[in-house]
Amino acid sequence: MGPVDTAGSSGLITRRRVIAGGAATAAAMASGSWLAIDRSSALRRRLHERGLLAGPDLPVPSEEDAGDVVYSTFDAADGHAYAWGLWTPPLADVELCLVCLHGKGGDERFAFEDLGVHRFVAHAGLAWAVATIDGGTDYWHRRASGHDPQTALTAGLLPALAERLGPAVRFAALGWSMGGYGVLLLAERNPDPVAAVVAASPAIWTRSEAAAPGAFDNEGDFRANDVLADAGVLDGMPVRIDCGADDVFAGTSRRLLDTVPGSAGGIIRASMTAARGEASCRHSFAGSAMSWRPGTPRPQRWTRMRMARKVRARSTGETNRSASNTA
After folding, report:
1. Contact, 177 vs 198, CB < 8 A?
2. Could you write out the DSSP letters of every residue in 202-220?
3. What does the alpha-carbon distance between residue 2 and residue 116 come to, in Å, rounded to a whole number?
4. Helix (H) or strand (E) segment spanning residue 310
5. Greatest mean pLDDT range, 4-13, 134-143, 270-279
6. Residues 6+ apart with CB under 8 A from 294
7. Measured between alpha carbons, how far is 282 from 288 in angstroms, rounded to an integer?
8. Could you give the count of Cα atoms lying within 13 Å of 40 in the half-sphere of its Cβ?
9. Are 21 and 52 in contact (CB under 8 A)?
10. At what angle do helices 15-30 and 41-49 cross, to 10 degrees?
11. 63 class by beta-carbon count within 10 Å (0-12 exposed, 13-18 middle, 19+ buried)
């Protein structure tokens, strides 16, 4: 597979969209408000959607001999079957497995077929495997419905990968939007197996009422799984956070960068939420993640594990209280 169309089928610039976008831009310029456009993230997002502003573009490397992705399913403890995918580098012993969590509307094929993460890895010559799992739309944590993609990940996928790749394999986690939230939650709740975490435009809110519909069951569920409030657990873990300056999650991404000491990444002038800018920006973030070399992972291991146990205990208490209040 060669480089993909970074606009995506939903982001192709039609004549109607160019005319509509051009009219909006012309009107803004005629009224002397181009400076306001430059400073308004909401308006810049609308221009991204019309194809008139684009994020940094980095095409997927064309690695013809990268090898095939193997897809399969496993039955998890929550009674659901989870689809997953795995790519391993040809003729190389795996040093690390990069576990990718998709955003809302994605699946186990997203990281491979939409973003070509394994091709970035192959192009960089890294001895990494790439694994994925379809977590559905439940924001990567246990829900009142009983669906529990977080436990399916930690008690299902990771042990299966360790069995296949070897017990000494280390894991790093990479996620986009909802998946960016998911990898941070994974690292906060289960710091032991995670060597590093990369979140691209993580879907994080400061208040439950501001969250996307269906992201949390209720206020108690939000508080029990608030990765921003529990970000101190990540102190000492290699963490990278990337977000577009025009993205709706730029504000909370800045807070994360400020909260987690030594975190890498930053806010760039692009939008992850726009149809036109999304793929190109994600490709650039993927390239940055592949070139990032964190220092020695897992300092302050036991401190972080104690903090994580406290977070899990609080999470269980909040969930139980929430359940009793709604019974």
Report:
1. no
2. ----SSGGGSPTTS-SSHH
3. 10
4. helix 301-326
5. 134-143
6. 196, 238, 240, 264
7. 10
8. 11
9. yes
10. 150
11. middle
Q: Which residue has the higher pLDDT, 312 or 306?
A: 312
Amino acid identity at 219: E
Helices 41-49 & 275-291, crossing angle to 10 degrees?
100
DSSP letter string over 234-290? GTTS-EEEEEETTSTTHHHHHHHHHHSTT-EEEEESS-SSSHHHHHHHHHHHHHHHH
pLDDT at 277 over 90: no
Q: What does pTM read for this prediction? A: 0.72
Question: Using alpha carbons only, how large is the chain's radius of gyration in Å?
Answer: 20
Q: Please compute, for residue 123, the number of CA atoms within 13 A of its CA located in the half-sphere on the CB side.
A: 18
- Interatomic CA distance for residues 322 and 327, integer angstroms: 9
Is the separation of the CB atoms in 129 and 170 below 8 Å? no
Backbone angles phi, psi at 108, to 5 degrees: -70, -15
DSSP 54-81: -----PPP--TTS-PPEEEEEE-TTS-E
Q: Nearest CA to 264 among 188, 312, 327, 196? A: 196
Per the CB < 8 A criterion, the answer to whether 83 and 107 are in contact is: yes
d(Cα 67, Cα 182) in Å, to the nearest integer? 28
Q: How far is CA 274 from CA 46, 168, 278, in A?
A: 8, 40, 5
CA distance 258 to 30: 39
DSSP state of 233: G
- Provide CB contacts within 8 A for 27, sequence distance 6+: none
Contact (Cβ atoms closer than 8 angstroms) between residue 59 and residue 283: yes
Is residue 14 scored above 80 in pLDDT?
A: no
239 forms beta bridges with 197
